[in-house]
Amino acid sequence: MDKFLSQKSAQSYLHPPREPFDQRMMDVGDGHKIYVEQSGNPAGRPVIVLHGGPGGGCSPAMRRYFDPSVYRVILFDQRGCGRSQPHASVEANTTWHLVDDIERIRAELGIDKWAVFGGSWGATLALIYSQAHSEAVEHLILRGVFLATEAELLWFYGGGAGRFWPDVWARFVGLIPEDERDDMIRAYHKRLFSDDLREQTLHAKAWTSWENALASVHSAGMGGDTPDHYARAFARLENHYFTNRVFLAYDGQILDQMDRIAHIPGVIVQGRYDMICPPHSAWTLAERWPYADLRMIRNAGHALSEPGISAELVRVMDQIGEA
């Protein structure tokens, strides 16, 4: 789960833009090639940025949360999205493939330990990766926590958030026959993976619009007109992951395995009015994590571009960089 970086008011908090010093397509096997870039200081503190979705792709704006004189910033497009190939593919595309891809990036770039920065689905992936490879992680920075639980999926796709946004929810469910609305993830899956490209695209844009409409605390309920190419990858990949419950062994696995990373320091930046990933998940995570610093941002929703969230994330990374 994640959004476009669109609010101009957030820009004043960010570091000046810096072009990458390295861009490459990395062959990770299974017919997939992923886009990887490095920017900032080649000798700086390494940090890998995990984008949201699944399926969102990385953005040049994501480089700007890090002082380019201090950090060696690694961004990549996860399998099937952004500039990675093949586009919108769900074949050989699971959480554990992504975890292996992150380790492959670390090995190819010759990095011993790094900070892991992720928001929304990127926070989920950061936690799962860190639990699998805790020896490689020196700091975790999370935003808009999603723990991939059944309760969170039910909240967002089962009508919980729709109680606050009934008009927007009505648009989202309106494409689905009434007798299929008891499981919106399954109903959309049927159409996102149909043989009709027009049907795929129509439902991909509706799926993406539902999420985009709830991203900002300032939203008027309009999800925008997402480009077809982006929407198709975002919706298909996100639905694929949620249909498979993010490929975890059991519900609640992330919280249950927090002992594996209890020693790693981390910061959680959470919007107080996040409608996509409600604050309860961030609070519960912090309760299980001795070295977590939970920073609840007032008057903020889910989006990375929320001014309060942007400002706090820059502040956090500057503080870590100075330590």
Please outline the helices and strands.
Layout: E1 22-29, E2 32-40, E3 45-50, E4 71-76, H1 95-108, E5 114-119, H2 121-132, E6 137-143, H3 150-157, H4 166-173, H5 184-192, H6 197-213, H7 228-243, H8 253-256, E7 266-271, H9 279-287, E8 292-297, H10 307-322
Parallel strand pairs: 3-4, 3-5, 5-6, 6-7, 7-8
Antiparallel strand pairs: 1-2, 2-4
Helix pairs in contact: 1-2, 4-6, 5-7, 6-7
Briefly say what this structure is.
It contains 10 helices and 8 strands. It has helices at residues 95-108, 121-132, 150-157, 166-173, 184-192, 197-213, 228-243, 253-256, 279-287, 307-322; strands spanning 22-29, 32-40, 45-50, 71-76, 114-119, 137-143, 266-271, 292-297.
Q: How would you describe the shape?
A: globular
Helix and strand string, N-terminal first?
A: EEEEHEHEHHHHHHEHEH
- CATH level 3 topology of the largest domain: Rossmann fold
Q: Total helix count?
A: 10
Going by CATH, the homologous superfamily of the largest domain would be: Alpha/Beta hydrolase fold, catalytic domain
Separation, N- and C-terminal Cα atoms:
31 Å
CATH class of the largest domain: Alpha Beta
Largest sheet: 8 strands, mixed
Overall pLDDT score: 95
Number of strands: 8
**Strand-residue proportion:** 15-25%
- State the secondary-structure class: alpha/beta
Count of folded domains:
2
The strand line-up of the biggest sheet is: 1-2-4-3-5-6-7-8
Radius of gyration: 18 Å
Structure description:
The structure is a single chain. This protein is an alpha/beta fold and 323 residues long. It folds into two domains: 218 residues, Alpha/Beta hydrolase fold, catalytic domain (Rossmann fold, 3-Layer(aba) Sandwich); 95 residues, no CATH class. 35% of the residues lie in helices and 17% in strands. The chain is built from ten helices and eight strands. Strands 1-2-4-3-5-6-7-8 form an eight-stranded mixed β-sheet, sandwiched between helices. Helix 1 crosses helix 2 and helix 5 crosses helix 7. The longest helix has 17 residues. It starts with 21 loop residues before the first strand and ends with a helix.
